[in-house]
Each structure stands twice: as structure tokens, then as C-alpha cells.
Specification:
The chain is mainly β. The protein has helices at residues 2-17, 47-50, and strands spanning 103-105, 110-112, 116-118, 122-125, 127-129, 135-140, 146-152, 159-162, 170-178, 191-195, 198-199, 201-208.
Length: 209
């Protein structure tokens, strides 16, 4: 026991001088050998143990600024857009057209009007013939407007048509119509007289004096 105390004192003195003598085994003291724990895997040792010591004077890098962006509102382009309205191509309803007048075939019908002069109040028809029934001689302007009418009896030849609207100089046209039985001229109902499928009509020159 005394030797042990002396050895400890000597070691303390040497440590103070900067030199440490080799440790000698203490008499009578047995240090058990340290054995590794078989349940601990060396590869999974604590990161703090394997981490390299920090270098004196080194400063830690500042943390990088966050790259997280605040949520933005909906993109204007993501909103549904409507195509521009197209101009309407619909047309207004047109007035109903008048039905074409019926026709009647008369192979013996005749109409003859000569070029003439006048005061615009009447037209002279040289010949107007219907083989059966009665009808009308209709005088029209160059635009198709009715200027006047005169009745035609079966076998009528020469007649004078008094105009309801005065004629002007230009080309006029006369045509034959067959009365529909009411004794009055109606352009929409009186029948158009045809010969071999063609209207019985005559164009002539009228000169206003």
C-alpha cells in the first residue's frame, strides 16, 4: 500500500514537469479489458463521433434564403374566354310573292298594234281576236306597269284603249287576257292567253305629241 501511494505521488510530480512516465501496472490492481458491444454496428456509429472537428476560426455559412414563393392568384390567361360574337347573317323575311297568273291556250288568238303617236291618253289596237269567250287587252309601260285596259269580245277587231295612266314616249306593250268569269279585269286572276305556249302580246313604239 505504501508503494502505491509513492508511485502516485511520483506520477503527479512528473506530470507537472511536462513528462509522463510510462504507466506501470499497479500492484494488486487488475484493469479488466474493454470488450466491444456486439449489438453496436461500427458503421452506424453516432454522427457526432465521426464528424471531423471544427476548424478554429472558421465561420459557419449563412443559411440560404428561402426559395418558397407565395401562392399567386389565378393567371389571366386561365380564365375562360368567349369568342367574339359574329354579326348576324339572317335576312329579313321577304314579302310573299304573288302567284303567277294561270294561262289558257287559244290557237286562233290574234293581237296587232302598230307604232303610233298620241297625246298619252289612249292607244289604238289594230286587231284583237279571241276564238271563244271574252277577255281584255292590257297596255303596259316599258317597266311592266299597267297603263290601261279595254274589253275584248269574241271576234273583236279594231278597238281603242283608254289609259288610266298617261303614256310617255317609249316602247309600250299590249297583251291578251281571258276573263275569269266575273266581268272585271283582275291581273292576278284573269288568264294569260297563249298560242303554242307563248304569250299573245305585241310591243310597239309610242311617241308623245
Amino acid at each position: 500500500m505504501r508503494l502505491t501511494v509513492v508511485a502516485l505521488l511520483a506520477a503527479s510530480l512528473l506530470a507537472g514537469c511536462g513528462e509522463a512516465p510510462p504507466a506501470e501496472p499497479l500492484a494488486g490492481i487488475t484493469v479488466p479489458a474493454r470488450t466491444a458491444d456486439p449489438s453496436v454496428d461500427p458503421s452506424t456509429s453516432s454522427p457526432s463521433a465521426s464528424a471531423s472537428p471544427s476548424t478554429p476560426g472558421a465561420t459557419a455559412a449563412p443559411p440560404s434564403p428561402s426559395t418558397t414563393r407565395p401562392p399567386s392568384g389565378p393567371s389571366p390567361s386561365s380564365e375562360p374566354t368567349q369568342p367574339p360574337a359574329r354579326p348576324s347573317t339572317s335576312r329579313p323575311p321577304s314579302a310573299p310573292s304573288r302567284p303567277a297568273p294561270r294561262t289558257v291556250e287559244d290557237p286562233l288568238a290574234e293581237l296587232d298594234v302598230e307604232d303610233q303617236r298620241g297625246d298619252g291618253g289612249s292607244v289604238t289596237v289594230a286587231e284583237a281576236v279571241l276564238s271563244r269567250g271574252s277577255g281584255w287587252v292590257v297596255v303596259r309601260s316599258s317597266s311592266g306597269r299597267i297603263l290601261g285596259t279595254a274589253p275584248v269580245r269574241q271576234g273583236t277587231r279594231l278597238l281603242r284603249v283608254v289609259l288610266d295612266r298617261p303614256a310617255t314616249s317609249g316602247v309600250l306593250r299590249a297583251e291578251l287576257r281571258k276573263d275569269d268569269g266575273d266581268g272585271r279585269f283582275r291581273a292576278s286572276t284573269d288568264l294569260v292567253v297563249t298560242e303554242d305556249g307563248e304569250r299573245v302580246s305585241e310591243s310597239f313604239e309610242y311617241v308623245l305629241e
